[in-house]
């Protein structure tokens, strides 16, 4: 990993500067009137824009008003530095519509050419969180995230956002939250149109990633066969639910990163310095 660090850093800088978002169709433009949080802005014409493909540092669900969350404040401040009062060009797939909260999901490029998602990921203010209908630039964003994580920047300094081992006891503390989980797939089985990736010997209590019928069509198009993953170590990112043991619903291939046939890192290695 030591040899990879300079390469990851160089790749991160190149991606952030190259504005790959501009390869996507233009959805419009505007000027930022307000920064709502680390991944949402309001334009002068009243439109709300959600930075697509990322999740900025935020308090865990249910703890929004419990106490200050400095990492969330830092993410908001970083976006203000990029966006406040400035022009922005919005990019994404043709036909992109606002989400259920009225926010337009888009890749954002400032008037100065800086790609806002890339800047936030490279500084460790956000994690990659793609959606089934919003997977553009996943590879570029994952590379930026990896470089920031390797350098321990921003949220990657802390246990609150550390990559979780596929340990059912530890993951039960993360039910109803978005996490990145790493482990070795012991078994992959298709039942009733759904593929189950099991990270333990007992599917009734261990960690499972579940890939439904619609998602499997996307996997087939991507060339990734989830039934071929046993014995591989993978990272899977998503919302932690509970069905017998902790379960992640996988809706698109970009949620899975293949790390090869090697044992996962010991649990202690993914822990950061503190809870936040």
Automatic annotation (TrEMBL):
Transmembrane segments: none annotated. The keyword Signal applies. Residues 26-158 form the TNase-like domain. Pfam families: SNase. Keywords: Signal. The keyword Plastid does not apply. It comes from the Bacteria. This is Thermonuclease family protein. It comes from Azospirillum oleiclasticum.
């Amino acid at each position: 990993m030591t040899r990879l660090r300079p390469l990851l850093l160089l790749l991160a800088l190149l991606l952030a500067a190259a504005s790959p978002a501009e390869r996507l169709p233009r959805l419009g433009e505007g000027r930022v009137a307000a920064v709502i949080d680390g991944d949402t802005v309001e334009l002068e014409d009243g439109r709300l824009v959600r930075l697509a493909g990322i999740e900025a540092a935020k308090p865990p669900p249910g703890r929004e008003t419990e106490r200050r969350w400095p990492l969330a404040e830092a993410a908001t401040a970083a976006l203000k530095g990029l966006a406040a009062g400035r022009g922005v060009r919005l990019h994404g797939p043709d036909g992109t519509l606002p989400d259920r909260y009225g926010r337009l999901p888009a890749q954002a490029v400032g008037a100065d050419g800086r790609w806002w998602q890339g800047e936030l990921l490279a500084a460790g203010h956000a994690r990659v969180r793609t959606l089934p209908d919003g997977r553009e630039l996943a590879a570029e964003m994952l590379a930026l995230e990896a470089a920031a994580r390797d350098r321990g920047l921003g949220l990657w300094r802390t246990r609150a956002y550390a990559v979780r081992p596929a340990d059912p006891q530890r993951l039960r503390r993360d039910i109803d939250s978005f996490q990145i989980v790493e482990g070795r797939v012991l078994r992959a089985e298709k039942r009733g149109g759904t593929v189950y990736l099991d990270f333990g010997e007992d599917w009734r209590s261990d960690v499972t990633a579940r890939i439904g019928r619609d998602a499997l069509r996307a996997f087939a198009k991507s060339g990734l066969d989830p039934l071929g993953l046993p014995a591989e170590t993978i990272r899977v990112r998503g919302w932690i639910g509970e069905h017998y043991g902790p379960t992640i619903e996988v809706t698109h291939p970009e949620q899975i990163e293949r790390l090869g046939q090697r044992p996962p890192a010991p649990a202690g290695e993914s822990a950061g310095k503190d809870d936040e």
